[in-house]
Design goal:
Helix content: 25-40%
Order of helices and strands: EHEHEHEEHEEEEEHHEEEHHH
Largest sheet: 11 strands, mixed
CATH class of the largest domain: Alpha Beta
Mean pLDDT: 93
Distance between the termini: 44 Å
Shape: globular
Number of helices: 9
Length: 300
């Protein structure tokens, strides 16, 4: 069984080194570790060469000529891995530090028919809010996540998928650039009959998301604080997903939710004019399906 580990990096060479060191300490040894460099400008490739990382037989570099975002990086890396004979691909960003048993724990549960994810943790907390389908409960402590539980979606952070799923539904949509590309991929998989599971004992240290909670009609909902250029992609890509999968809920849920997120962002008092610009730019491009890297075209 060939297990390929895939790390996408951009201008974070020191974080990347920490990630690679953790991958080499896995109790279950992978077949290959792929580094997809998104055209870094901070000397990432030079650092890898100077410190002998690329001389290690299990490590291979895929150097992209332009920054294609996380979506493009994961899409390119996944395609290469499966074309080279991978049975499974375990994917993450460069700021992930997997615990030594993380790969072994997730492979204890893995089957080719479904998608599995490691639990991103920050100390005793979850790095991301995690909602379990069994009780529709959002948990924030790692000890509250079962050994195996079905979820609606998973981030590309300890994300394990198989060649069978790749052959069935293809690659992540590179046109998303960043944000919600993992959500779209999970939804596409579910529509094709695959389930999404989180593995609570497969853990990856990761910076905690900048999140906050708000009450809407008595329901507590978790939101992320986003800088304007990320607000653009969050708005646009949520609209793209809703247009593709949600039907009338685009109007009854997605658009009201986006407006509410904007209101919360404006209440913080930070970068209000840019937050507004990012929202309307993302809304425009989402409606007219203008995809790819576009935040710089809007001067965000």
């Amino acid at each position: 069984m060939n297990i390929y580990l895939l790390v996408v990096t951009f201008n974070r060479k020191f974080l990347l080194i920490d990630c690679l060191q953790a991958l080499l300490l896995q109790t279950l040894s992978p077949s290959k570790i792929l580094i997809v460099d998104n055209a870094s400008t901070d000397g990432t490739i030079e650092t890898l060469k100077q410190n002998g990382w690329l001389e290690q037989p299990k490590i291979q570099l895929i150097a992209l000529k332009e920054n294609t975002g996380g979506a493009g990086g994961f899409s390119s890396g996944m395609q290469y891995a499966f074309e080279q004979g991978a049975d499974y691909v375990w994917m993450m960003d460069d700021d992930a530090v997997p615990h030594p048993t993380a790969l072994e724990e997730i492979m204890r549960h893995a089957t080719p028919e479904h998608i599995y994810g490691s639990l991103a943790v920050n100390g005793e907390d979850t790095a991301w809010a995690t909602t379990l389908l069994a009780n529709n409960k959002t948990v924030h402590l790692k000890n509250h996540v079962p050994e195996l539980a079905e979820v609606q979606s998973l981030p590309f952070l300890g994300f394990l998928t198989s060649k069978e799923i790749y052959q069935n539904i293809g690659l992540p949509d590179a046109s998303y650039f960043i944000a919600a590309d993992d959500v779209e991929y999970c939804m596409r998989a579910q529509h094709a009959g695959h389930k999404i599971f989180i593995c609570g004992q497969s853990q990856i240290e990761h910076p905690k998301s900048d999140r906050y909670e708000a009450n809407i009609l008595g329901k507590k909902i978790t939101y992320l604080n986003l800088v304007p250029w990320k607000r653009y992609y969050d708005t646009r890509n949520r609209l793209l997903i809703a247009k593709k999968y949600y039907g009338l809920k685009l109007y009854t849920q997605t658009i009201p939710s986006l407006i509410f997120r904007l209101i919360l962002a404006l209440r913080s008092g930070k970068n209000r004019s840019k937050q507004l610009k990012a929202f309307f730019a993302g809304f425009y491009d989402g409606v007219f399906h203008n995809t790819g890297r576009r935040h710089d075209k809007w001067d965000l």
